[in-house]
Amino acid sequence: MIIIKKTFTTGVFLLLLSAQCFGQKFRPKKLEETLSIAVKKAYGASVRIWGYDTLKKVQTSAQFTGVVVTAQGHILTAAHVNQPDNTYLIMFPNGKSHVARGLGEIEFTENKMFPDVALMKIIEAGAWPYAEMGWSSSLKIDEPCLSIAYPETLNQTLPTLRFGRITDLKNQFGFIQSTCVMEPGDSGGPLFDHFGRVVALHSAIGTDEDENYEIPIDLYRKYWTALNVSKTYGALPSNEDAVGNDPLQSAILNIPALQDQQGSFSTLTTELKESCLGISSTVHGKTQKINGTLISLTARSAVGNNVINSLVISKSSLIGEDPVVFTANKSFALKVILRDPENDLVLLQPIGSIQGGIQLKQFNRDSLSFQRLGKFLISPLPDRPDQVSVIGSMYFNAPKRFSIGYLGAMATFKDSNIVITAVQPGSPAGISGIAVGDRVLSINDMAINKPEDYGAELMKFWPFDSLTFKIKRLDQLYFKNLTLDVFKSPLSTHPAELFNGGKSIRRDGFTQVFSHDGRVKPEECGGPVFDLKNRFCGINIARSSRTTTLVVPTEVLLRLIERYQSSLPTR
Asked: In the listed set 439, 462, 486, which residue is the last one of a domain according to the structure?
């Protein structure tokens, strides 16, 4: 067993002092500082993993997560994603990748989901970034914790952060439970304490977003020697190692205020809370509710003789005909003045005067650097308590994957033509009369000559876009008009697909976003996001998955506002 010795003297004193300060009064900014230190220690050791054929150099499994815990390259992960002696590609956040081999795992013969313990090791010799192992035996209820893992739906090379608290020290199956949300891809990922030490590994989830089950780190400590043998144990190994005692146990925080995050983090002024407005409009014949963000222009813009004091920014795909905004005492009609389909943004002008709003000087213009990961955010909502979250990523591009318009037809390249091979009954293609055997000549007058043309052209469009297919059937030419539908994922009973509120229909295809772990429902998007300094950071644009809400940052919003202002006549 590899034992890492450290001295704690002054550090323990400072941590004890910090714990006393938290005990006297909960201070969100102090906790934020503590977590920032933990992130710096832990981030570089959290690795993305998938099965890897070293001869063909191809991926052989879905992605999952692990954490390096020794300089020699030992990796903790979950047994349900590991196979002894199989090879895996390990990808560090710094962009470097290496091959690892599966070592020992423990999964009970009668139920392979328990205790879900596995170990890997990087094959190549080296000195690897690693995180310190903590002790699960010293955890406390309401202790703050962090997840750093790779959710499958985002498919990003860098991990995302999520914040939570410990809610159960040992359930009936031997798992720890936390509120750090997980989804597929996070399996085997690390749960860190507020010192940046690994205290558990992600294993399973329930339907409720607070049901996240973690493998205790002490199991890896106790069976370290056994796990270094490439073997599947159907029962707990007889060979046991000493678990040891946690030298920082007395400094571990438990913060009951975290049970009511909305109330405990209420740092926003009334004016900023009221900058989140409810909007109603008609979208495809149905009443649609969404939130919007009120921006104060402080009499900067004018149309004719009318000075425009405020604008509302929201999510374009959920703003349709006759939009109306609701304030505390009144409702106002809104006029759509500019849409940005690329970022799913819409700029609206209130027909009337709305007081308040976010001033441009409150926009956070700082670029999103690594130092801001784990910083707290607050999303005010008009109809329920504010949602508290942490910044989970730096800026990234979210390519269109799940938000494509649904056609319902498959095609292949045959005899120098794109030929329809299958049509789903009741789909837009089927309703329009497109049939198997039809040759596609063009889509919206864009010629389809090569196999890649067909997919590339369809990827440009969104649900409810109208298309005209020019097809050739036998020797006759036809034009088929259709409207794309919402892509319907296969029905799934996986808990990751059953969380409260579900996913946004338009949830990707964004040029610049960042993530947080706030539990914002699709119809609550469009509202503002603030940091603890009351700075405006962007608007919630989509609920991407169980773990992730996406934010369009302020610099993108500023470009939209400036584009609008530049189009106004000079006075």
From this structure: 486
What does the block give as tokens for 79?
């047994």
Angle at 541 between CA 535 and CA 547, to 5 degrees: 95
Cα angle: 110, vertex 209, 267; to 5 degrees: 150
Q: Are 157 and 95 in contact (CB under 8 A)?
A: yes
The CA dihedral of 551, 557, 560, 565, to the nearest 10 degrees, is: 160
Residue 495 lies inside a defined structural domain of this protein? no
55/131 same-domain check? yes
The alpha-carbon radius of gyration of the chain (Å, integer) is 26
- Tokens found for residue 238: 């007889």
Q: What is the pTM of this model?
A: 0.93
Write the pLDDT tens digit of every residue in 420-434. Answer: 999 999 999 999 999
- Summarised one tens digit per residue, pLDDT across range 322-343 is 999 998 778 999 999 999 999 9
Q: For residue 251, give the 3-state DSSP assignment.
A: helix
Q: How many angstroms separate the CA atoms of 204 and 114, rounded?
A: 10
As separate numbers, helices (DSSP H) first and strands (DSSP E) second, the chain gives 9, 36
What is the DSSP code string of 112-157? Answer: TTSEEEEEEEESS--------B--GGG--TT-EEEEEE--TTT--S
User: CA–CA distance from 211 to each of 112, 166, 219, 387 (Å)?
Assistant: 20, 11, 21, 18
Report how far Cα 538 is from the mean position of its chain's Cα atoms. 16
Cα 134 to Cα 138: distance, rounded to the nearest angstrom? 9
- Residue corresponding to tokens 């069976």: 223
User: Measuring CA to CA, how many Å separate 200 from each of 12, 41, 76, 115?
Assistant: 22, 16, 10, 12
Number of separate domains in the chain: 3
